[in-house]
């Protein structure tokens, strides 16, 4: 049986990073992805890329509707390696923080936390308000929750935006044991 990874996408900027994450998971023979996109994520996709929603969905092994609150990932008995939300809006951060599980992404995140599985949040917003920072700080104190904002890095000497996105996607997937082929780690000076 393949390892299951839930990948949620919400209405913040960063859909191209979602696409890169899906491509990297596709390269893994022992993983399968379960994609859940909110309506806001689909709207953002149309604004940030030239791809159609259907094209992005084809990059996933399984696609679930965000309103499908009774789908497998809504239950702890649905075994997964964890969940990645990329991009993760501050609205979603607030929902996870408060336990307000009114869609499949929020419910799956709630289940991931209660089952103590890895939950990686590619939190997107700038500037951050005191409310955002409080929610992020309290989530970061929960075991297995990682806040990994998609920040640019330069130590790996990227030559394009695509290389930066690849590096960010590789960092987001690393907590699940996924090793991207072209990922260049910091090796010291």
From TrEMBL:
It catalyses: dimethylallyl phosphate + FMNH2 = prenylated FMNH2 + phosphate. SUPFAM superfamilies: Homo-oligomeric flavin-containing Cys decarboxylases, HFCD. InterPro entries: Flavin_trans-like (IPR036551), Flavoprotein (IPR003382), UbiX-like (IPR004507). Dimethylallyl phosphate binds at residues 155, 171. Its EC number is 2.5.1.129. It comes from the Bacteria. Keywords: Flavoprotein, FMN, Lyase, Prenyltransferase, Transferase. Residues 3-171 form the Flavoprotein domain. FMN binds at residues 11-13, 38, 89-92, 124. GO terms for molecular function: flavin prenyltransferase activity; lyase activity. Flavin prenyltransferase that catalyzes the synthesis of the prenylated FMN cofactor (prenyl-FMN) for 4-hydroxy-3-polyprenylbenzoic acid decarboxylase UbiD. The prenyltransferase is metal-independent and links a dimethylallyl moiety from dimethylallyl monophosphate (DMAP) to the flavin N5 and C6 atoms of FMN. NCBIfam families: PRK06029.1 (NF004685), ubiX_pad (TIGR00421). HAMAP family: ubiX_pad (MF_01984). This is Flavin prenyltransferase UbiX. It comes from Anaerostipes hadrus. The gene is ubiX.
